[in-house]
Amino acid sequence: MASNASSQSSPNGTLNSAVPDGPLATKWTDYKAHAKLINPANKRKYSVIVVGSGLAGGAAAATLSELGYQVKCFCYQDSPRRAHSIAAQGGINGAKNYQNDGDSVWRLFYDTIKGGDFRSREANVHRLAEISLQIIDQCVAQGVPFAREYGGALANRSFGGAQVSRTFYARGQTGQQLLLGCYQALEKEVAKGGVKMYSRTEMLDLVVVNGHAKGIVVRDLVTGEISSHAGDAVILATGGYGNVFFLSTNAMGCNVTAALRAHKRGAYFANPCYTQIHPTCIPVSGDYQSKLTLMSESLRNDGRIWVPKSREDAAKIRSGELMAKDIPEEARDYYLERKYPSFGNLAPRDISSRSAKEACDDGRGVAKTGLGVFLDFSDAIRRLGKDTIKARYGNLFQMYEKIAGEDPYETPMKIYPAVHYTMGGLWVDYNLMSNIPGLHVLGEANFSDHGANRLGASALMQGLADGYFVIPATLPTYLAGQKPGAVTTAAPEFQQVEDEVKGRIAQLMSVKGATPVDAFHRELGLLLWNQCGMARTEAGLKEALAEIPRIREKFWKDVRIPGDPDGVNMELEKAWRVADFIDFAEILCYDALTREESCGGHFREEHQFTDDDEDVRSGYTNPGEAKRHDERFCHVAAWEYKGPGVPPVLHKEPLDFEAVEPSVRSYK
Amino acid sequence: MNLTLKVWRQSGPDATGRIETYEARDIPSEASFLEMLDIVNTGIIESGGEPIHFDHDCREGICGACSLAINGVPHSKESGITTCQVHMRKFRDGDTIWIEPFRARSFPVLKDLMVDRSAFDRIIAAGGYIDVRTGSAPEANGIPIGKEDADAAFDAATCIGCGACVAACKNASAMLFTGAKAYHLNTLPQGLAEKDGRVLAMVRQMDAEGFGNCTNQYECEAVCPKEISADVISKLNRDYAAAALREAVAG
To answer: What is the radius of gyration, based on Cα positions, of chain B?
Structure first.
């Protein structure tokens, strides 16, 4: 097998992914057979810092503690049980083939590679598909109450981008149940003394000693105290950066701070332009709005998406003159079924979202703002009965009614795409280690498995795979070369980073401007949504890159943070996060500007199929679909930070496809 | 719409709290309750004050962070929802709204409307889990579980750990919270091996945290945003009695 020792840039500027040699199907098995081990008696001498307590971080902390390591786990929430993994609704994929419908590890691997528009690393994705089997076993053993058939066997449902039923689910609360299983395992280890849990504690910076990640600096969100923690390795499982858009389906506290701080300390940020806009969310209704609410993709199993064929009918629906039920069948455009007959309403997320945007841009939107399409259950209710639909989606229907004030059993839901997940993240090698030795990154915070678009029910799978099964096997590859406890907080680097953190807090508090933090966050978010959202252009991205420094300047001159930093201060917490979002937004736009192709969630208007393309003329794909340029962009773009206001430097990891030939993605 | 808010303000855990009055002006009826507070807070900040602190995160009713007693009722008088799912269309123009933290001796106030609910984590750590090491699990379909049992376990497992049950109870009892987790795990075959130890440890931790006893008022069930049935409490009592007896006999 290949050496796992180094993931540094090689002299020619490409990145070493440390993918083991050998056939794709046996790489992971072979890796585990030959990987370094740490003697059980020595494991307790090693301490590991885990930041984040969601599926990836919680699973890693619990499992590493079971193995004997000393773990410190940090989360900003008041309890690890509230990490945002809890909000995932629809399900988790597992290639069990319990439905006997032809599923296999290969098929889950293939669907994920294709769903990611051929922009992910084959070896990682195959490992993920293999581990999907163990995850389901583990969660059931923990008591996760997955849906079951009357005979007692586990039930499945279908998700986008697949033609098999491989999604395990717990009503519309799968993330909650998986996270509680993980949280309970974590608390079990807390009770046994293997994990020390730090809730309401936020990582504000990474400490690098002699080129290795050896600790973090945190703020106690109750007392305001700044302190340092040293470890033999640092694991970031801090989620995605969707809140850079202000409005997203993320929780209010989700932020990019840990990842951005690591980036500023030398970790490469990979593919930030791959952002997922989820097709089925409740539309925006006003400028007071603080967040958007997802309606699970599982609804597309039984719901049909449509808009009126004519703009006139759509206008009458918007004005309230007509209702959905007044539009006869022949005047409706079930556009996903029309454009993608084999996948229909279960087309992947990027494609479904862009189709909704197209319909609304064409003047056929049905929400008051013009930005909304129908998700209609009337056929399914007629076919299966209201009770069956209620059993499948009851809590989602109830959630919709609470927010929108309309009963989806009677009238179709109105939905519109919203920022939901970010495929980009810190660059990691096969060991899930970043280019800073010792810094490992798991779950949504890394870039590794979903390419340019994530399929539904795959985020939970990846978070748990990384935490329960990958990192416990790969961490010793790094740790075996480290003397345990060699670095303590007495190292001068800790004091230096603490001073920088305190200085930045003092700087934020001293601005004493007139404008609350949220105003800057909204302004940044709207700019990104318009210029770097569902469709991007060179001109728009350049405009955004010119505008972001102006927002930053205004922020640092005019932000108002009341109170003082020695105690609970939620405005200070927000201000720190928004300052980091502003800096991060530039990297996001640079990446989107330089990736001159369309792929998955990254759609550049200049790069789409037209009637002139052979693939369109032959009927293989439709005009307007994303057009990749494999000859120039079949690589991971990993950005190196070079200082404030200085363009980042690009490093490339070429993507070699051995098992799957990249093709034009078609869901027709 | 315009509203008058009567809000609990408390600068820190040891400070004396008080009710303060705020006028909420031009609130859109489509806004959520927490968005209404966002608007009020923006006004407070702009006029030089300190915003009202409250816990919140997912704002879609699942993380369990939000925890306001609205007009005296945890999560408001509407049933089956969390604070973040309360919408302003349920209020009338000119209403006066009282907003207080979830009050209980075991939930000390940290600031304004934020309380410390870490006692719940310690109850789970005492026994609210199935002790299965990662990697040691048998094949998932190896243990068939009837749909009725699976559904009943699920209903109890929907608890979001918000603490409304404690805040609504005149005794500040945590029996619904503890009972829900015990019911979830004790109903499943995977959880049976540790059943006795689980209920003994969880109930004793609950008592050690200072939560009160249950006196069958069912306020907890009425305010639970996930509508968990108080049946989980009777089951917990039965399981505890049986486990305590077996413990006593075993010496």
So the answer is: 20
Strands (E), B155-207: none
Place of tokens 């305010």: B223
Is-contact A89 A396, C-beta < 8 A? Answer: yes
**Which two tokens mark B170?**
């005149």
Instruction: Classify burial at A650, counting beta carbons within 10 Å of its beta carbon; exposed 0-12, middle 13-18, buried 19 or more.
Output: middle
pLDDT at A13: 55
Asked if B31's CB is within 8 angstroms of A288's CB, the reply is yes
Cα separation, A299 vs A278, whole angstroms = 13
With CB atoms and an 8 Å threshold, state whether A188 touches B129. Answer: yes
What does the alpha-carbon distance between residue A321 and residue A327 come to, in Å, rounded to a whole number? Answer: 11
Strand order in the sheet with A635-640: A425-426, A269-270, A635-640, A649-654
Taking 50 as the threshold, does the pLDDT of residue A11 lie above it?
no
Single pTM value for the model: 0.96
Pick the residue from chain A with its C-alpha nearest to B182.
A143
Domain of residue A375: give its range: 279-418
Residue A539, number of CB atoms within 10 A of its CB: 11
- Cα separation of A278 and A272, whole Å? 17
Q: Write down the ipTM of this complex.
A: 0.98
Matching CATH number, B3-111, of 3.40.50.1580, 3.30.110.70, 2.40.160.60, 3.10.20.30: 3.10.20.30
* Three-state secondary structure string covering A578-599: HHHHHHHHHHHHHHHHHCCCCE
Cα(A56)–Cα(B84) distance, integer angstroms: 26
Chain CA centroid to CA A119, Å: 15
Indicate which CATH number applies to the domain containing A286. 3.90.700.10
Scanning B82-158, the segments in alpha helix (DSSP H) are 118-127, 147-157
Counting Cα atoms < 13 Å in the Cβ hemisphere of A32 gives 10
Q: Which of residues 565-604 of A touch B (CB under 8 A)?
A: 567-568, 570-571
Chain B segment 113-152 residues within 8 A of A by beta carbon are 114, 116-118, 120-121, 124-126, 128-141, 143-147, 150
What residues are paired with A195 via a beta bridge? A71
Residue A161 confidence class, pLDDT cut points 50, 70, 90:
confident
- Answer whether A108's CB lies under 8 Å from A126's CB: no
Average pLDDT per consecutive 10 residues, chain B (251 residues; last block may be shorter): 98 96 96 97 97 97 97 97 95 98 98 98 98 97 94 97 98 98 97 98 98 97 98 98 96 75
